[in-house]
Amino acid sequence: MRPPFPPSPERSAELRRRFAEEARSERPDLSTLCLLVGAEADGELDEAGLDAAQLELDRLAGLLPYRPGGPQAWAVALRELLGERMGFHGTPADYQRLESSLLHEVLVRRRGLPILLSVVWLEVARRAGAPVYGVALPGHFVVGFGPDEGQVLADPFDGGRVLTGADAELLVAGVTGTGIDPSMLRPADPLDVVLRILNNVRAWAAARPERSDVALWAVELSLLLPSHPARLRYERAQLLVQRGEFVTGAVELEAYADVVSAVDEGAAERVRGEAFAARAMLN
Length: 283
Fold this sequence. Notes:
By secondary structure, the protein is an alpha+beta fold. The chain has helices spanning 9-23, 30-41, 47-62, 71-85, 103-109, 114-127, 165-176, 190-206, 212-223, 231-242, 246-260, 265-280; strands at 132-137, 140-145, 152-155, 161-163.
């Protein structure tokens, strides 16, 4: 992928307004939010490109058989279409690519991180009427079909392989060293999915200090979600300082310190010290 160029400030402001509005709607649309993330990353993704991505999801849904049956049949139908016919899957190298976290790129490349491939599965299956939802296993996102008592899990990163109970246990044990807790199998809220995607973008950028621009927009989009970790405000302030915006960063650090002081005055004083150091960089 070419280095993504950000949208203009005016375009970015409009994208963020729409992102915040969608995130606060009664039923946030996962594909819309993911595509707005992509547009914030890639200034070449215009309105026609956003529409084309939605139409591609519609097209794929239209290729599924009509109501194939229960949860197992749905999982198999999605695997045969998306994994086998269309070639959607992931590889270890996909973890090193920013486009693996951008839905419009995943639809073109048919490669991506587990969570973005799961978004494709979810959006295609949802359009076709499947009882589908995301399942945020520790360290590995998959999709689920059907109710708790008949739940079927599939792994889009592995081409949609239908998981046995033992397979799921191994995935969780490889990350946590323990077995599956029933709470891990609950449907993931769409906004939690978006936050997890933005966390992946931030992790990608954290390993590449020269891409602090990517880290900044990922943090700022995260802050537009109705529920987000308060510490993201601190991370944003640090990024502003890192990018040479010393005064703005210092102001943000001081504001965060005021919030933290209510629960941890020692931590607040450390943050105020960072703000003082940031202002000193102007001298």
